[in-house]
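Dear Dr. H.,

I hope your travels went smoothly. While you were away I took the liberty of generating a structure for the chain from your last submission, since the lab meeting agenda had it listed for discussion. I wanted you to have the full record in hand beforehand rather than looking at slides cold. The sequence, exactly as received, is reproduced here:
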Amino acid sequence: LHRAFSVFLFNSRGELLLQQRSAAKPLWPLHWSNSCCSHPRQGESVEAAAQRRLTEELGLSAKLRLLYKFEYQAAYGQVGSEHELCWVFAGFTDEEPHADAGEIAAWRHVSPGSLDTEIAANPAAFTPWLKLEWADITARYLPQLLAAADRN
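The corresponding predicted structure, in token form, is as follows:
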């Protein structure tokens, strides 16, 4: 069990920034995932790590709001697994990413409804934590997040 975080960045149109993980990732390569996710360094707060990785992976900064934290475990075939205590953040930006190609193969913005449709049609294309977190976000936080996106 280790600490991790997931960031969900929305733009002013209420679209979510998704990233496709690099082919070089040992776990879930080329799977679509939330805007940014990683792990804090020893002695680093989760909040500081989230801000650091937004800059390193996407060339972005955004004010983040902690939504919740939860524990999950998921295996990637025989390659390995994740067992994380994950902090889930949301933020807002209309800046375009400048993605680190070593971390991110592609990125795109998607409406919440389109993401729901894509996950239902092809769940294997998405990381397990994205599916878990997105279900919780849509059930508990999405209306407030979309209202806030409209104000930003």
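Two observations you may find useful: The first helix runs from residue 46 to 58. Helices lie at 46-58, 112-121, 128-140, 142-151.

With kind regards,
E. W.
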